[in-house]
Design a protein that fits this description.
410 residues; alpha/beta; 9 helices; globular
C-alpha cells in the first residue's frame, strides 16, 4: 500500500444528491449511502480513491437525508489524524452566506469557502460521491500541473452514438477545452477519433485561487450554480481548461478505466452483477488499491445441509457472500448477499441483491430483485416470476428488476 501524502491538495466530495432515479433505495438514505457490492456504501469508492491517492484533507458535503451517510463515514472513516492536518469532515448547509440550502454543486462549495480558507492546499479536487470507479488523483493533479492549467476535467471516451446522454467536452489537438454541451444532439468528436467523444465524469481539479474567484463570480449570476452546466462554460474561454483522459494514470490495475454512474435501478443492478461475474472487470481484491468500509462484528459466512437427493443443499455459485450469511439448505446463484442474510431450505435466489439481514423463507423463489435491509420473504413466496403481479405492489424497473424497500412487510 502506498504511503504518499499530497499535502497540497484538498477535496470536496459532493454527497447531497437526492437520487430520485434510485428510489425506493433512496427513500430513507442519500444516494452515496446506498449499499453496494455487499458490504460497501457507494461513497466508499470515492473516499478510498482519496486515501489511496494520498489526499487526506477531505470535506464531505451532504444534504438530502444525510443521517445514514454521516453515521457510516463516522464509523468507517475515522482513520485520519487531525494532529497531522488530516481530516474527513462533514459540511452540511450552515447558511453562512444566506438562508438557502445548497442550490447546486458549485453553490455547495461556494457556501463552504470559509472552510477552504482555513486549510492549506494549492489544488482543490471536486469529486462526486455517487460513482463507482478507481482513480489515482495524484496522476490527475500531476497532469494538471504539467499543463499549467487553471481547471482540469477528467473525462471518459465513449462511442459518439452514446455521447448524447452526457455532457460532451470539445477539445483541440492539445486537449484544451474549446466547447461544452449538455446532452447535445450532435456531439463533437475527439480530434482524430471521429467515432469517439469526451464526456465529463464530474471530477475536477482547480487551482485554489481560481476556484475561489470563479465561485464568487457565479454566485452573483442567475444560474443553476452547477460545475458542469455553469462553471465549465464560464471558464473555458478565458482560462486554461484541459481534459484528462480517465484511465491513463493507474489506480488499480486493469480496471482503472472502469467508471459507472449507478444513478438508476437498472444501472445499479448491472454494476452489482458485474462484481458477481466469474471474471469481474472491477477488482475488489486488489491489495494495492483497497476499498475500505465499516466492518460489523459478524461471524463467518456458512453453508449447511448437503442432502442433494432431497434437493436440500446450501450452495452459492458465482456470487458475493459477506460475513454473517447463512445459506441453510437453499441455492444462490449470481447474486450479492450482504452481511447477516439468511437463505432457508429449498429456497432459490438468482441474479439478486439482498441487503443486510434479509431473510428468504423456505421454498421461496427470488429472481432479478433488490431487497432492502431487514425484509423477510415468507415461505413459498415468489418474487420476480410474475412482473405484472409484482408491479401491483413494488417498483419494477424498465429491465424488470423488482425492488422491495426497507421495512416492507410481506
Amino acid at each position: 500500500m502506498r504511503t504518499k501524502i499530497l499535502y497540497d491538495a484538498v477535496s470536496f466530495i459532493l454527497a447531497g444528491g437526492v437520487g430520485v432515479r434510485l428510489h425506493p433505495l433512496t427513500k430513507d438514505r442519500a444516494k452515496p449511502a446506498v449499499p453496494f457490492g455487499g458490504k460497501y456504501r457507494i461513497i466508499d469508492f470515492t473516499l478510498s480513491n482519496c486515501i489511496n491517492s494520498g489526499v487526506r484533507k477531505i470535506f464531505v458535503l451532504p444534504q438530502y437525508k444525510s443521517h445514514s451517510l454521516i453515521n457510516h463515514t463516522r464509523d468507517a472513516w475515522s482513520i485520519l489524524n487531525p494532529e497531522l492536518g488530516e481530516f474527513i469532515t462533514h459540511l452540511s448547509p450552515q447558511m453562512r452566506v444566506g438562508e438557502d440550502w445548497y442550490k447546486g454543486t458549485a453553490d455547495a462549495v461556494y457556501q463552504n469557502l470559509y472552510h477552504l480558507e482555513q486549510v492549506d492546499g494549492d489544488y482543490v479536487l471536486i469529486l462526486s460521491g455517487d460513482h463507482i470507479y478507481k482513480m489515482d488523483y495524484s496522476h490527475f493533479i500531476r497532469y494538471h500541473k504539467k499543463k499549467k492549467a487553471d481547471l482540469t476535467i477528467s473525462a471518459i471516451e465513449v462511442d459518439i452514438a452514446e455521447a448524447h446522454r452526457f455532457g460532451v467536452i470539445e477539445v483541440d489537438a492539445s486537449s484544451r477545452v474549446c466547447g461544452f454541451e449538455e446532452k447535445p444532439q450532435n456531439p463533437k468528436p475527439i480530434p482524430n477519433k471521429p467515432n469517439k467523444a469526451f464526456v465529463s465524469m464530474g471530477v475536477y481539479v482547480f487551482n485554489r485561487d481560481v476556484l475561489i474567484d470563479i465561485l464568487k463570480k457565479d454566485a452573483e449570476l442567475e444560474t443553476s450554480h452547477d460545475f458542469g452546466k455553469d462553471i465549465m462554460p464560464l471558464m473555458y474561454h478565458d482560462y486554461r481548461v484541459f481534459v484528462y483522459r480517465f484511465g491513463t494514470g493507474g489506480g488499480g490495475g486493469k480496471d482503472a478505466s472502469y467508471w459507472r454512474d449507478v444513478g438508476t435501478i437498472d444501472a445499479y443492478w448491472n454494476a452489482n452483477m458485474d462484481l458477481a461475474s466469474v471474471s469481474p472487470i472491477f477488482n475488489l481484491y486488489d491489495k494495492k488499491w483497497p476499498i475500505r468500509t465499516y466492518e460489523g462484528q459478524y461471524p463467518p459466512a456458512k453453508t449447511v445441509f448437503a442432502d442433494e437427493d432431497k434437493g436440500r443443499a446450501g450452495k452459492a455459485l458465482d456470487s458475493i457472500i459477506c460475513s454473517g450469511v447463512i445459506i441453510s439448505g437453499g441455492r444462490v446463484e449470481r447474486s450479492v448477499l450482504s452481511p447477516g442474510v439468511r437463505i432457508n431450505s429449498y429456497a432459490e435466489v438468482s441474479e439478486s441483491i439482498l441487503f443486510n439481514n434479509v431473510t428468504i423463507g423456505m421454498k421461496a423463489k427470488v429472481k432479478r430483485a433488490i431487497i432492502d435491509k431487514g425484509v423477510k420473504v415468507p415461505d413459498g413466496m415468489k418474487i420476480g416470476y410474475d412482473l405484472k403481479k409484482d408491479a401491483e405492489r413494488f417498483f419494477v424497473s424498465e429491465e424488470g428488476i423488482v425492488v422491495i424497500p426497507k421495512g416492507e412487510i410481506l
